[in-house]
């Protein structure tokens, strides 16, 4: 009897502590092995940090953890296999692991996946000596620790989940009522056109259908490896936004582009082809606008064309903002040529400041609404710019209904390294 009991206990222990291979097929079609080990009791305790909807855990391919919760989600347009190497300690995971078969409270996830082909960006950037703060785990596996000592968190979901409850319906109704009183700021902001040399604003340029698709795509990618997280500066201060980088990761701490996300050590997801196409047509249309000025012999002198290989996706809640700064961490070649930054705004409108100095009192202001595209290159490539406020309840109602985007603003800025 005692022998039988010991045998069962030993088997159970082995079952709980040995890696359970779970195929990891992310939205990036990365194949890997997820090993979940029970490390600490079976109690389940969800905790949240101060950011709404953010669970107190980091999870790689967390949609695939938890046995029964395995989901396969092909990436929109992204066909390359990406490299994720990580060894991440998680505390209670609000997603798959928490609901996993063992009620795992803390788990260690080892994930390894191979890289296949790709668009050539990665090797190109590796050759440029882009630094990645890669550390070695005891097992020798490379991984990158995000905030040392801080709780790792699951990627932020830019959309609300669950069924439409009365609170959401109420806020939709309120939004509808408020929208009747929203003054469209085209006149106030000068509307569509050339704001200054090299700076063009295309008002309501992105169709509602494309905006909806953009939100859904960003949500999909943003919940996966290399997804949304709240970045911080060297001094520990956090930015007042959630960020995800596509193509290459931009690290506010080092002010460098790297080929690993600090949040989970994964390669940044690639930029969906559709996004790049929109950027290219927006630049062409901006050239069309500039071409109306007969004194310009070559519009590209004022606004060079570019092919984006980086996209920084920011999500601002209604209290989010971004201080005046210059975008100057791209390659010196790109900056010298004045290759433009192309910015898409989706969701709530925002007050955007821009000027020649880092001084809010000397800056000009424009309201960026859902669907607007702002392009700044050439002589305006080094302008100081920032977001002072997000205007609540100003997003198109249909966009919110179709996507359940959280209150706030999604902004995508495309650049060429
Ligand atoms: O949100 C915006 O409009 C600006 C974002 C920005 O400046 C940046 O990501 O560098
Ligand atoms: Fe910027």
TrEMBL record:
Fe2OG dioxygenase domain span: 307-417
Compositional bias segments (type: Polar residues): 118-130
Record localization: Cytoplasm; Nucleus
Start and end residues of each stretch annotated as Disordered: 108-149
Entry GO terms, CC: cytoplasm; nucleus
Catalyses which reaction(s): an N(6)-methyl-2'-deoxyadenosine in DNA + 2-oxoglutarate + O2 = a 2'-deoxyadenosine in DNA + formaldehyde + succinate + CO2
GO molecular function: broad specificity oxidative DNA demethylase activity; DNA N6-methyladenine demethylase activity; ferrous iron binding; oxidative RNA demethylase activity
Assigned protein family: Belongs to the alkB family.
Protein's name according to its UniProt entry: DNA N(6)-methyladenine demethylase
Annotated organism of origin: Populus tomentosa (Chinese white poplar)
């Amino acid at each position: 009897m005692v022998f039988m009991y010991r045998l069962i206990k030993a088997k159970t222990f082995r079952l709980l502590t040995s890696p359970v291979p779970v195929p990891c097929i992310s939205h990036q079609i990365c194949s890997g092995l997820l090993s979940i080990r029970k490390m600490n009791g079976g109690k389940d305790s969800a905790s949240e940090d101060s950011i709404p909807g953010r669970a107190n855990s980091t999870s790689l391919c967390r949609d695939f953890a938890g046995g029964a919760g395995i989901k396969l989600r092909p990436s929109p347009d992204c066909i390359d296999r990406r490299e994720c190497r990580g060894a991440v300690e998680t505390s209670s995971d609000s997603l798959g692991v928490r609901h996993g078969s063992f009620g795992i409270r803390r788990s260690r996830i080892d994930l390894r996946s191979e890289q296949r082909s790709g668009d050539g960006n990665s090797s190109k950037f590796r050759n440029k000596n882009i630094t990645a703060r890669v550390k070695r785990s005891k097992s020798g596996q490379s991984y990158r620790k995000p905030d040392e000592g801080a709780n790792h968190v699951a990627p932020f979901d830019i959309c609300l989940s669950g069924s439409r409850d009365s609170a959401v319906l109420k806020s939709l109704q309120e939004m509808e009522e408020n929208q009747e009183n929203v003054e469209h700021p085209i006149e106030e902001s000068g509307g569509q056109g050339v704001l200054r040399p090299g700076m063009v604003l295309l008002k309501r340029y992105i169709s509602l259908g494309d905006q909806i698709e953009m939100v859904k795509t960003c949500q999909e990618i943003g919940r996966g490896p290399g997804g949304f997280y709240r970045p911080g500066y060297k001094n520990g201060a956090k930015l007042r936004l959630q960020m995800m980088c596509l193509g290459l990761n931009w690290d506010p701490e080092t002010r460098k582009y790297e080929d690993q996300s600090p949040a989970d050590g994964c390669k940044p997801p690639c930029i969906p082809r559709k996004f790049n196409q929109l950027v290219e047509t927006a630049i062409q249309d901006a050239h069309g606008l500039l071409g109306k000025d007969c004194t310009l012999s070559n519009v590209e002198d004022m606004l060079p064309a570019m092919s984006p290989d980086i996209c920084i996706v920011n999500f601002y809640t209604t209290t989010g903002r971004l201080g005046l700064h210059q975008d100057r961490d791209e390659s010196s070649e790109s900056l010298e040529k004045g290759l433009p930054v192309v910015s898409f705004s989706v969701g709530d409108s925002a007050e955007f400041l821009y000027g020649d100095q880092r001084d809010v009192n000397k800056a000009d202001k424009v309201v960026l609404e859902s669907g607007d595209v702002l392009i700044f290159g050439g002589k305006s490539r080094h302008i100081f710019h920032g977001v002072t406020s997000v205007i609540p309840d100003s997003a198109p109602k249909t966009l919110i209904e179709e996507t359940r985007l959280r209150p706030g603003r999604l902004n995508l800025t495309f650049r060429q390294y």
